[in-house]
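tool_call: predict_structure(chain=1)
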Amino acid sequence: MESPRDVRQGDNSVRHYLAQDPEYPIVIPFHYDDFQNLSNDFIFSAIRRNYLIRDLFGYQSPLRQEYFYFGRTRLVEDVIDLHRSGQNSGLFGLRKSGKTSTIFAIQRRAKTIGCRTLLIDCQDPAIHAKRFGPLLEYIIAATRHELNLRKIEVKLGIQADEISENFHRLMNQSLNEAKSDLLVIFDEIENISPETAASTHWRKHEDSLLFWQILRAYFQSVKKYKMSFCFVGTNSHLFELPRILNIDNPVYLFAPKTFIPMLTFQETREMIGRLGYFMGLDFGDAVVAHIHQRFGGHPFFIRQFCSQIHKRTPTTRPRQVSRKVCDETEHDAGLDIKGYLDEILSTLKSFYPDEHAMLMLLAQGNRRSFQEMAELEPALVEHLVGYGIIVRHDEDFEFAFDAIASAVERNLLVPLPLDLEAKRAEIGKRRNRIEEEVRSALFGWARRMSTDEWRRTFEECVTDVRVKALGLLTVNHAFSRRSSPLNFVETLSFVKKAEQLAVEGISASEITAAMDLVNKRRIDAHAKAISDTDYDELIKAFELLENVFCPPD
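tool_result:
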């Protein structure tokens, strides 16, 4: 029989190993003495004794194993199903939304059914620092390695035409040798996308265009074995750009967009309940509902919050977690979570300023400008709803959970430079005057129409949803200088119809272009800084419109 010292060393060895690999399944050591002095709970006590050495909630790296991965099962299956039918997929979400953990889940699932996958981490300088030709060479070499094929020298050439031809030939050769299809997963896709890439040649030059032209051409070519793509990143901007460098974007609408969903209440309860059970923490449904609401089902933030509860709870377990404990934990967990939320907002501000501007508008309570921007750029709302940051209720929007609302409001407390305040005041004053004068001009134009002409024009210029909300407005009501319910975007739609508003030397297209600029820059100025160049362009647009619509002072 082993000595007590040996028993302690065995326990310590297990604890040490599990501490080094937090995702490894728990090993529960039992000793002979445990069975000599049986208790009603001796098995569960042994389990908890070993689980309590780890904070199962506090694991921050992407989850490589399935034991602690919760929810999103349907998402994983959808990606696999699309690949097996020869289609592409796209997964998008903010930092810490579980994108990389989902990639690992896709790879695990693919392996069980014989699908081969290749992961390309575009955030790695070894990837984004390469030009488009060397990166295609890398993909062929990595494909052969993944498919267990012999290593060959891969040289595609220098000119785009020979690079494309050789890529087609060598990739076909590789897939035919392996007799296998391949799912290529591009993670952090924005790092090789125009406007957001980490390296200049992808961000500003033609590498992105040529790279995707070649891959799209290969994807569409007739062949025995297929290669499909799963694109993973923060934003689906690459697939929404109609043109790159004024040339048709080869991957425009190339893959269906799916945003990584937040956990449902049931999935939140399963995650908290299962992990908490083995840590001796009992979360009742009311407490789970509070945590779910506080963080909108965001798994990372929920885990970090529960981790703080674990750290402040005595080790004599099991224990019931109360609402009071949650409230007391708010401050400690808030410091860590605040940092992550501020980082998310900083990323949006730097790389996706329009989405950030819309959040600022919503936090300011400026719902009219928010709605105008939503109608002008519907994809921006789609992104924010998809990220789980805002939710939509009919025509109204609000923040999806308390923590993100607080983080955005903190951003509003940063004082504005005096010159920015002055710019905003000037923009607001001139915009309001022009909007009133434009309505007067439209009133004169529309009053000449018959009732049927006005009805057709109104329904063409106003969306169905808004027509349902407003009803058929009279000309007097629609273009009232002071009380018109039409927003700026709707007013602009009428201006585009009323070509006779043009004056000598200023065409109808110049008028609508100026109004488009006023609308865009006006929203920018509400929610973010406006550069001197943009401000000068805006003032010129004001001057053109004032020349057309405003009577002399």
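agent: Confidence is low (pLDDT under 50) at residues 1-9. Proceeding to next step.
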